[in-house]
Fold these 2 entries.
Entry 1:
Amino acid sequence: MRAFSKLSIRTQVLAIGAILLAVIPLVSILAFRQSSVVIVNQNTQYNMELVSNLKQRVSDNYAKISGIMVNLGYDTTVQDFLAENDNLLTYELSKKVQSLMGVIKSTNPDIVDIIIVNASGKHTSLNGKIGLAREMMDELIDHEGNVHYGGFKKADPLLARDTFLFGMNLFASRDTSRYGEKIGLITVILDAKSIQAEIEKFPRLSGTSFYLRTNGNLVYANADGLELNLDAERLTLYSGYGESAVNEKIGGKSYAIQSFDLPEIEGNIISAVPIGNLIKELKGLKQTSYVMLFVTLLLVTIPYSVLMMNILKPLGKLIAFMKRLKSGNLEVLHTKVELEGYAEIEVISTQFNTMLNRINDLTQQLLETTGELYQADIERQRAEMSFLQSQINPHFLSNTLDAIKGIAIVKGNQDIYEMTAALSRMLRYSIKGSNEVRLEEELKVVGSYITIHQGRFPGRIQFEQYTSEGLHDVLIPKMIVQPIVENALTHGLEPHASGGKVVIQAELREDRHMEIIVTDNGVGIEPERLAQLRSTLRSRDRTAYQHIGMKNVNDRIRLHYGEGYGIEVGSQLGSGTVVRVRLPLPPA
């Protein structure tokens, strides 16, 4: 995005225009494809609902045929016919059975024939299709007494039409010695047109092909299906596709293929819907969209070009003027730039000319103030000279202390010599240029300071110092320990009648920080004063009137390292004071 923003306005405008020209057709294409998917899905759902109704009808027909076979097969007359061995009685019973079958046939015109055969081979039927019944008998020799689908039979010279076969073994149900024994077979031959007619009733899209298959054989194909002429291999393949539509290319056209199982006749229905017919209306809409797209782009291009001219031309003129101004020609400041275009461009022109006038005025003021600045620079140099001269005084004092040290040695006064030497070391340390020093140097200066106090109070002040290994060379801010030791001596030990001890410890902590601990066994701090001191250390008020040295040290540490570091004070009245200075360690 940043790289794009650095391009010229012309390039950005052209790029945005190109993106719009590409996006608008892309959106139209995507919308057309999405609409196509929606229509195909809706057709898929529609086919599923239609075939669901067909499956229900096939299931109802199967249940009806099963009911007919059970009711007829276990009728008392039929049972007597099947169990009778006497030829004359068998003949008379067969007439009665035929009468029953005739009644059933009259109410179910789709039934081509009903055949009942007993165990000894005697039979009765409506149309004498006994050969089909014997085939069923062979198939059902080990079958139980439920209805069995026998398959599809193609029309031949002996069978005038395509039919479906259903058969069922019959068992003796009368209270005789043969009760439960298989005594015969009933076969129903159903006209295939009963199912084909149901398919023909389907309201469907023009060009949709339907195929009815059972036991792997094609039973029926509508006119469109015959025209599409799918072979057995493809029909077998499509039978496994399931109810979700799958797109297939057949003869150069795309079809939505679906397969629906018909378990009652061990078959399925395959539908092939031409996608081109589904989206036929969308094609007209697509062409209309392209025309509208062309007109829209034409209408957008004209004002777009005008917009570019009214923006880019004035901006180009302004850039050229600014380049002349950048060249350093001050005469340009006395001219004006004239920009024509939108109201905003004219506002820019007015404001730019006002800015030129202001720059011209400021240039004059700059020339006037240059002399004043030159004079101020001279004054600054004089101030720096005074500062350098002021540094001579500490050096003079240090040299004077060295002279006193020499006199003390000559006179043999060791105490004066040591105190003067300690004071000289502190003075040189204080005027040392660096803001950070090694911990070892800081503690040496603290030792010099204590030496001075020990000279003032002989025998009253004791001093011990401990430093953890590895901390001697750690850099710390200069003069942060001395003010704390000064407080310990002045407020802790001097008021104490017998003096006391100051212990300085520098210790390493586990969380990558160090602590400098100053402990004294002096008079301690009263609770009220201790609370006030802690409040002063926490406060950001730099004008605190008490413990100014500790306050200064704490503020310097917090400014240098952050809020997590600084001074903590603990004290017990009459027992002494402990001051902890928390400092970070440099990265390893």
Entry 2:
Amino acid sequence: MSERDPNRRDPYRRDPYRRDPEQRERRPRSPEQRKQQQRDGSPKTYTRLTHPLVRDARDAPFRRATWDEALDRAARGFRAAQGAFGMFSCARATNEMNYVAQKFARVVMGTNNVDSCNRTCHAPSVAGLSAAFGSGGGTSSYEEIEHTDVIVMWGSNARFAHPIFFQHVLKGVRNGARLYAVDPRRTSTAEWAESWLGLNVGTDIPMAHAIGREIIHAGLVNEEFVRRATTGFEEYRALVEPWTPSLAEKVTGVPAAAVRELAHAYARAERAQLCWTLGITEHHNGTDNVRALINLSLLTGHVGRYGSGLQPLRGQNNVQGGGDMGAIPNRLPGFQDILDTGVRAKFESAWNTVIRPRYGLNLTEMFEAMEDGSLRAVYCIGENPAQSEADAEQAVRRLRQLDFLVVQDIFLTKTAELADVVLPATAGWAETEGTTTNSERRVQRVRRAVVPPGEAREDIDILCDLAARLGHDWKYADAEAVWNELRSVSPDHHGMTYERLEEHQGIQWPCPSTDALEPPFLHGRLWDPDPAVRGRPAPFGIVQHDPPVDLTDEEYPIRLTTGRRLDSYNTGVQSGGYASPLRRGESVELSPEDAERYGVVVGEQVRVTSRRGSVLAPVWVDTALRPGLAFMTFHFPDEVDTNRLTIEANCPIAGTAEFKASAIRIDKLPAPTHVR
């Protein structure tokens, strides 16, 4: 273990405010300070859309329009852009909406250019899991984490970002599970862990390789599973051999003893769950990061069994379902490969169309196509890429280059402000009938609870009206009719009638039969003694360490990482309209050492600059951070647009940007001069 300066604060030391994040946010302040903080921390409130809006010229203001005028104008714009069209579907809307949206792109517009915010967050998880197992979903149910022996939370502050799932984690801990947190920050989640492994940002692969090497050298490999159910082990063994715990300590900053402890705990456990979120995926090599974690499960046999599995935690209520419904450029509904001739033939027969036998552009590639003019029109449903994409200034510039943009949403977002036509839709979580799919692959019914305001209409009805104007007469009596069409073409969903979903309070896919339910975990086939039943073995991923693209140096010495807070949601469009006693607005969080180094105090406004842009933000001092590491969120872009700082360095496999690793500097602002 490397020596530590005895005079330096130990970042592993407990902070009395860290056990309870709510308590930490309530550090002693006067009533006046509390009121001022609440005023300063209130994000912009967005007004609900209640009627269609159109522009009479590109730079003209919006005016109210009838539905017929708005839909006619949208249809004309899309018809003019045939062959240069892209669809952004919505990870917060229902499965049924996403199914119809991707069908609109493929049948009406003749393109596979359809994607959603899955690309921004968990596309590397889908790519990595698909490469290993042929399926892009998490392998375990939430219940299993309550009955496992070891839980590894890697790159995930689940207590803030996934509070419902974290309740299952806490049940597991109370039932005796040992929790390990691997994260650059000593988060609220880490406070519940037996051990926190505070690695340097972007060193997940060296950490995983060192754990794998230790498992091999300690003789803890599940040799029978590796021999029967995997391929590429010898190549993997050679890959990780140089990564001793001592070398890993030099690269990751995590003590070698802590690396060994986690390796032995994970490998020796009868059952273990490995969970991750955007700390793993939002990197320029996010898919490689995911493959490195999957390797550990293959090495130990912690997959395909009850209580042992891999769990990517999805942030949106239906980001899993959007991909399952085919709202991605390379898969048709039911996660069926678009390049498979038989799969295409099935959908072509069902839809009476011809599907192009090639992958479409993903979200990242569509933005690049806006730049070169090969993508001229976009239909954006429920997404806000003007504020959620990395390098936000570039994203807005590209959206402005479009010939035609239609936004269908519940609020006039920053993206909607750039549109030619705005269509008011219903909220998928309260005003719509349908289903959604969560991180454990559980499909659940959602029901209309309130009447939508004004002239707001169901997304599916809007899509069908547009399709009719473009020559496709689709008739769906209700959301159940859409779902039954999906069931007819997706074997994984065939057994999920609305009646059964209600009876079982949700069903996990796959569910091919209307008479039975499958086990709650995936890939049990890998344990079958019959090779024919086992099917395709799971390959080890041969992935190399590749440091962050945006290197720190003397000019930009601080590593900025981003994430979520418990009190807010994504770009704040929805959560900003609601007060929270925890909310203090956006800030740049610094370690006590860095705050002292720059001579700044809590609440002081500073300039935060990266190689792409700069923002002004108040300082917050957090003992969870080590020197050289800063933290910000993307919840308050109207006040502090953090994504002006982030870098669009994309994973070549999944297209996800490196939100988690930007290089920045902190500039103290000059004291204001008082004029008499």
